[in-house]
Structures are given as structure tokens and as C-alpha cells.
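Internal QA ticket QA-208
Title: Verify multi-chain structure generation after dependency bump
Assignee: T.L.

Test input:
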Amino acid sequence: MANYEVKAEVSGSVWKIVTEVGQALEAGDTLMIIESMKMEIPVIVEQGGTVQRFLVDESAAVNEGQAVAVLST
Amino acid sequence: MSINTYEARKAKALAMGGPEKLARRRAAGILNARERIDRLFDAGSFIESGLFGASLDDPDRSAGDGKIAGFGRIEGRDVAAVANDFTVMGASSAATNGRKIGHIKRVATSRGMPIVFLGESSGARMPDHMGSRGMGALLGNDPTQYVRRREVPWASATLGLSYGSSSWYSVLSDFNVIRKGAVLAVSSAQLASLAIKEKVDPEEMGGWQVHAEVTGFADAVAETDEEALDLIRTFLSYLPSHHRAAPPERAVPAGSGSGMADIARLLPEKRTQVYDVRRIIRAIVDADSFFELKARFGKVIGTGLARLGGRTVGILANNPLFRGGAMDTDSCEKATSFLVLCDSFNIPVVLLVDTPGFLIGIDAERKRAPGKIMNFMQALQLCTVPKISVILRKTYGQAYLNMGGGRNSDEVAAWPSAEVSFMDPTYAVKIVHGLSPGEAGFDEAFAQMNKDSEPWDIAAMYAVQSVIQPHETRDYLIRMLDVHRQRLTNGVGEHLMQAWPTSF
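Actual output:
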């Protein structure tokens, strides 16, 4: 099992976490939604995996490139 | 000279760097230079120029002098090519092969055919280039060597370790595909490690991911040599052979436009939700004709070649799936280079508009956002090919101009869902009325601004020429592109950016 971090590609605030710890995701699934530029911008996982933990809470401010969750493959 | 001497010399030239090196490549699943040429061109169409070229300093080891040159056909059209043969002295650049490249470029440019560069080279040949004698004799001596005037399309594949002039030709090209495992860089990781006194990983320095996602030098990524060569054939199928011709036409594939009835469903009803504009593009253009360029770079703008009614078009579209469609500096560079490509080769441009504006902030300014935005703007204004914009949803402020509003496209159409204003109503309510969401009066002010942003007023003023239903978009574009066909010049533009840089 290998862990990897999922990063936000845009600065903004975490609007809604739409997955749970332990949930299995496939490439292309939405992990959470960040509000930025008055848009709801999904954080999409580029490879599948299981959510191990979140590194941010809802409403938290995130920066571009910041890790927001850890997934395992 | 006996016939045997001729046959022996020919066989030696065709044997390239010898059976052991060729076997190693085969075992690794990598094509050799001649196999690449065979794959690139229509069967039996290649005629070589310079089979007996070699280095007079070491003729026995320098078959073809490491670069194979000649002419072939792709889908029946003539194309010139230079393929680096890494099995011969690492395909290093030297006197004879430099003459070959110069000849191929001169012939292709003067006779009007594309050039393909198959890159895999260790760089300049040592020790030939060393010392002032080497420099005086070899390097340069051709003041047009790296001039791009875009008279003919250039396409390139990076198919192995590619340093020096092999990399220069790739980044000078209109299209460059990099095969996974290949490296494109100024010089080798070994030399870089010596120069900066730290270990340099070749893949990290110039691998496919770097060029697909960070530098944007890769227009496409291929898993194999074969796929890379096929992508070059596909790319060239959209382009004319030279800048004084319109692109070739194709029959319209069956099933084209079949997704138009449902296209409105691809656009979310809620204005803050994102979607992938490429689904909309694929519904509009001829079936399976969307050929995306730089898919992993500057992703907030999608660019690609496609066909509408059998004719080549360039599609430049905001993609809200990434960063909500807010245009960053990478996407501005991507848009600029794409407009230069289209304008240089007489390809009309369709712009699909849905962007909250340019990504702003400290980082953007430090990345020279104003300069990038103006390069993009100037490229659009210098385009002399037909330009048609379709506003799908949001268009605000300067981004409205960059995406063709304000007479920067020849025609602007809007979907009824279009929102046209100077800025997003949410921000505008704060600035104009001093109100934030949740405060008394915000909702009323916001609703009024939203209503004012609907496309009807701008259509009434004829600053937007048409309001069309989403399902009418394909037919509208085909018809309007025909209206704007450049009859006076047989579809040829003025090419005002033909000598613009190939990267920014």
C-alpha cells in the first residue's frame, strides 16, 4: 500500500467535503469542492485510491498546491 | 567502382549503428530511425537524400552521419523529414548531417511541404566542435538555421534523449509530441550535474511530465514511438502543406452533430458549477475530429484542431472544470501560441467563452500576468483568419475582449445563458452598493445585476450579433464560417505573426 497526497490546484476555501475516510475513489472522482473566484471548483483525484485522512476541514483556506488529503493505493 | 562496392556501401549505410545496438533497441520496444520513417510515411513513399553521407573523419562508424533525411508522403501529400539515428554516434550534430538538415529545410520551405523532425540526439559531436577551429568550422555558419517564419508546418517527436539542436527543432515546431521515457533538455543530465554540482535526474529535468504539464513544450504525449508518429500524421492532416494554401477538406463523418439535441444538458443550470467544456466541443465538431493540443498545460483553456462541416477549425475554449475557467499565465501563453498557429496556417478560430476572468493576485502578477494577457490580446487582434466567438455563460471585463468580445471576433453569438458584464455580480454588488452576501438589500441588488448581465441588451445594441439556442450552435458555426470564408485570397490570411516566437 502506498500513500499519496492530493493537492488543491487553486487557492480558495473548502466549501464542501463530499467524500469520507475509508471511501474508495476512482480516477476522475471528486474529493472535495473548493470555492474560489465565486465558483465551486472540484478537487479531482487523478488516480484511484482509498481516502486515509483529510488534511483540511470545511471552511479552511487552502493555497494552490497545498495537500488536502492523503489517499492510499 | 564495381556494383559490389555500391551494394556493400549501401548495405553498410542501411545497417546504421550495427546489429547489436539495433537489437538492444528492439528489445526495449523502441523503433530505430529507419523503422520510424517507415511508420511515419505512406508505405513505399520515402526517397532518401544523403544515404552515403558520413563523417570523413570516421567513415566506417558514421553511417548516414547519424541523421537520416529525405522526403515521403503522408496521406498522399509530400512531407520532408529528418530522423536522428541514435545508434550512430548518438546522432550527434556534425558537419555532414548539418548540411542534410539545411538541405531538407531549404527544399521543404521553397517547395512548400511540412517538415518532420524525429528527435533523439546527444547534442553536438565531440571532439569535432571543440576549440576555436571546431567552432569556426562547424557551429552555425547558417544565419537562418533557427529562424521560424512558419512558411511550412513543422512537426516534431521527441523519441529518446534529446539535447542541443534536436531540442531546438522540437521547441521551434508547431507540434511536438514526446514519448514517455524520452527527455528533452538543453544538455544531458550528466553535463548539468557537472555544471551545477548536484545530481540531476533526467526525467525530472526534461521528461514527458515536465513538458506536458510545466513547460508546455509537449503538445501531446505518447506511450510508444508508433503512437507518437501516428499523432504527427494526424496533426498534419488538419494543416495545409504551406502557408499559401487553405487547409485540406474532409468528408463529414456519419454521426456528426448527433449530440446537439442534448448539448444544453452539458451546461450546469447553477452558475457556480463547473463542467468540462471538451464535452461541448466534441458535441459541436465533426465526429471524432477534436485533436486536443497541450491538454495537460494551462488547462483552464482548452485548445485543439477539429473539423466543422469537413473544414479545419481551431477551437479555443475556456474550461471551467479547471480553476473555474479563470485564466492564468500558462493558459494565456497557450492561447497565444495556438492563435499564432491557426493564423499562420489559415485555420479559422472558434472561441467558446465561459470564464470568470483572469486569475489575479500576487502570484499572477509575479508571473507577469499583464504581459501575458496583452500577448494573448495582441495575437487575437493580429489574427486575420475568421474568428467566431460563442458565449456559453460568463464573460467579464478584459477577458470579454480576450475571448473575442468588443469586435475582436468577426462574429459573436451568445447562448441565452450568457452573462456579460464588467465583473461577476457578486463582486460588483460589493463594490457598487457596499453590500455583502447575507446583508439586507444584497439579494435584490444581486438579482438586478444578474438581469442586467443577460445577453439581450448587448444583442439589442448589436455588440453581440446573434443569440442562438445551444442546439443550433453547430449549424450556426458551419454556416457562419462559410459566410466568412476568405474568398478574395482563397482562404489565405496575412500571417502577421509568422515570425513570432514559438514559446513565450
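Spot checks passed. Chain B has 19 helices and 17 strands.
Status: verified.
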